[in-house]
Amino acid sequence: MTAKITYADVEVGTELSAQTFPVTRATLVRYAGASGDFNPIHWNEKFAKEVGLPDVIAHGMFTMAEAIRVVTDWVGDPGAVVEYGVRFTKPVVVPNDDQGALIEVSGKVAAKLDDNAVRVDLTATSGGQKVLGMSRAVVRLA
Amino acid sequence: MALDQSFVGRTYPPTAAYEVGREKIREFAEAVGETNPVYTDPEAAKAYGHPDVIAPPTFVFSITFRAAAQVVEDPQLGLDYSRVVHGDQKFAYNRPVRAGDRLSVTSTIEGIKSLAGNDILDIRGEVYDEAGEHVVTAWTKLVARAAEEA
């Protein structure tokens, strides 16, 4: 495993490049097929509203997959990720229009650990709401 | 109704092997908008020291969640799946999942809690390759929301 960032180069507080990930209904249909999660709350507005949701929502695992890209794009080798965990705090609501929703993700180094590993804390928001909580990744740097 | 606490610690039999294919990884990577060639180009993966293309970090959830279905659908446990939402998710990797892996999952119920009428179920999935080596552990917290007052 070879990360392009070295442990010596980072310190607590180092910020990773923030990214914005667009998500439309088409994105969700595609993710449903690729992941095998066909829960209708992710593509059927009528069903979503019947179970008390404001509209169709993104798969939590889709948001989780997007958020870690801030870390993997930073280190280069996704194999450098040792741990990754999130709490799904609020759904990403995806309206049926051309724009859909945006997931905005930022991250910074929160701790330097043993064995060249660092902990990165991620923040993910959509529509001004925090959609992930306790979103943390441990990555091994070069 | 609260779930039976005696299910805590219960381990379900290992699942039949899931064979990870290069094209399935590509499909997943494209679905999440990934452009890193380590997911699609074996040469790019080798440059990082991987024997074949690797899967994005959350890819393995498709496999562990299928395995967790044994727990979720266990009639003796009696979880109301129509009320379930995904609470937390965590992975600890020994190595990345890669094309050619034949992965089997052993699911264990780590915890059952009842909080304000919600049932909270913690499931741990241990993922092993064909050689019996540990690849990744997935922890999934499911929350079955309390039924609305009639």
Automatic annotation (TrEMBL), chain A:
CDD domains: SAV4209_like. InterPro entries: HotDog_dom_sf, MaoC-like_dom. Residues 12-122 form the MaoC-like domain. Coiled coil: none annotated. Pfam families: MaoC_dehydratas (PF01575). It comes from the Bacteria. Belongs to the enoyl-CoA hydratase/isomerase family. This is MaoC family dehydratase. It comes from Streptomyces filipinensis. The lineage of its organism: Bacteria, Bacillati, Actinomycetota, Actinomycetes, Kitasatosporales.
UniProtKB/TrEMBL annotation, chain B:
InterPro entries: FAS1-like_DH_region, HadA-like, HotDog_dom_sf, UPF0336/Enoyl-CoA_hydratase. Gene3D superfamilies: Hotdog Thioesterase. One of its GO terms (molecular function) is (3R)-hydroxyacyl-[acyl-carrier-protein] dehydratase activity. Residues 6-137 form the FAS1-like dehydratase domain. Pfam families: FAS1_DH_region. GO terms for biological process: fatty acid biosynthetic process. Belongs to the UPF0336 family. This is UPF0336 protein GCM10010260_16660. It comes from Streptomyces filipinensis.
